[in-house]
Design a protein that fits this description.
alpha+beta, single chain, 3 helices
């Protein structure tokens, strides 16, 4: 099953990436995620591994995932190593529209998952879970937007205060 959601954030890609690339932020903005912890010495980047669990209905599903693509301020993709079969991707691009202002970023979050070898019951479980997972993705992006844009406003206010003092 494939689900995706996207949103436009009023911030440059680097500001959005700072949240996406920091595993410590995931529990603050990812809806439905009950665990996102670093496994091993590498906290981020290509080859980083995370134990992740998402609450779907009455179950927590997930497993161990590994980052297999990592292009700063642009793309991050992961695949499952152990647990439910899944692939995920963060995709950051300049926002479309009049001039594609560099301070606006289109963020897409995609997730593909499957219940391997479970036949009809697996297919049914995937389809029942899809609306829940899609809702988690949408809420996650809304929370990411709120946090990134708040941080942008906070930083701008701090810079204005510092300029007045100087």
């Amino acid at each position: 099953m494939r689900v995706a959601a996207d949103i436009e954030i009023t911030a440059p890609a680097g500001a959005v990436w700072a949240f996406i690339d920091d595993p410590a932020c995931y529990l603050h903005f990812m809806s439905g995620i009950t665990r996102w912890e670093v496994v091993g010495e590498q906290a981020s980047g290509l080859g980083a591994r995370y134990r992740m669990l998402m609450h779907v209905g009455s179950a927590e599903v997930g497993g161990l995932v590994e980052v297999v693509e990592h292009e700063t301020d642009r793309d991050m993709a992961w695949v499952s190593v152990v647990g439910i079969d899944q692939r995920g991707r963060w995709r950051l691009r300049p926002a479309r529209g009049s001039g594609a202002h560099p301070r606006r970023t289109r963020v897409e979050l995609r997730l593909s998952y499957g219940v391997a070898g479970a036949g009809l019951f697996g297919w049914l479980a995937e389809h029942v879970a899809a609306p829940i997972v899609r809702g988690n993705l949408r809420r996650s992006l809304q929370q990411l937007k709120r946090q990134v844009e708040h941080e942008q406003l906070r930083s701008a206010a701090a810079a204005r205060r510092a300029a007045r003092v100087a």
